[in-house]
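call fold(seq) -> tokens
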Amino acid sequence: MDFRFRDRETADKIVKELKEMKLNITLMHVCGTHQAALVEYGLDALFKECGVNIRQGPGCPVCVTTPLEIEEGIELARKGKTVATFGDMAKAPGTRGSLLDAKMEGCDVHVIYSIDDAVKLAVANPQKEVVFMAVGFETTAPSTAVTLLSNPPENFSILNCHRYVPPALKAVIEMGEIRVHGLIEPGHVSTILGTKTYEFLSRDYHVPQVIAGFEPLDLLMGVYLLARQIKEGRAEVENEYGRLVKPEGNPKALKILDEVFEHGDVEWRGFPVIKDSAMILKKKFEKYDARKKFESDLKEVHSRKFECPKGCKCGEVLRGLLDPKDCALFGTVCTPQTPIGPCMVTFEGGCNIEYRYNAKKR
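ret:
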């Protein structure tokens, strides 16, 4: 099996030490890129041989976006607004199709590569209302914040779906549906947050944590550090990804986030309302809030309750309760070409990752 380790000798040594620990532990990561590395390189199977079961958590921005939020975007497009968002978000199914389906109906939907593209659309089309569907965690939210601080045109607004990661980690632990012995924290998000943000989880819940990079050796070392903490009865935040993640994170990005957003409560797909996990626009930026700007257009949508598609187990996958292949729809009616839920849509989704790397082996 090819794990593509740059340092095979070190990798073999770590695996040997993990096996000698006689482990029986469950870890959770919250990053689609970590899941992709685990499956692509066969690390998930290797870790199970070492007594380590790694569950995926709510680390995919498109996946945790709720049916209501997707329906809001579709409704704005159908009410004549120009809606711009990233490709994976445009493909995510709501209960009445996706934004791409709305585009095929004749709605003005644009797949873009950055929020700057949406602003350019607004500048080039002053007669149109341009709405950017903004998704993502602390990694992508600073670009949204910078844009709003730069006084974009009056015909530009955002459908804000940004979320904070640490409150979701707290929710996973407090819900207690799965016994998590340690957390592999996301590398990308942690470049913004730093290490200190996670300390309350170790202090208050005695959960060992390691911030890990995305190379196979990063994950091996991250799991080894967690296993060592567990064996020694320690619970702290260790930083395996020190080449990019600093204790203080990115102060400039954090300052920008604090200027534009404040904490609020919001549902995540598969979860109840998670307290303090929503990035809510501060009052001085409300003129860019599409939900307030187009409140009358969204009134009917907000009066309805939208459920996840029947049979879809994305919620259970995001809470670490199920593997994608445990869903009866996986690989049959639900494929990347015909996705039923968002976990099959995006390259960061667990179902899409499992299908890409393992479906042909089944």
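The longest strand covers residues 273-281.
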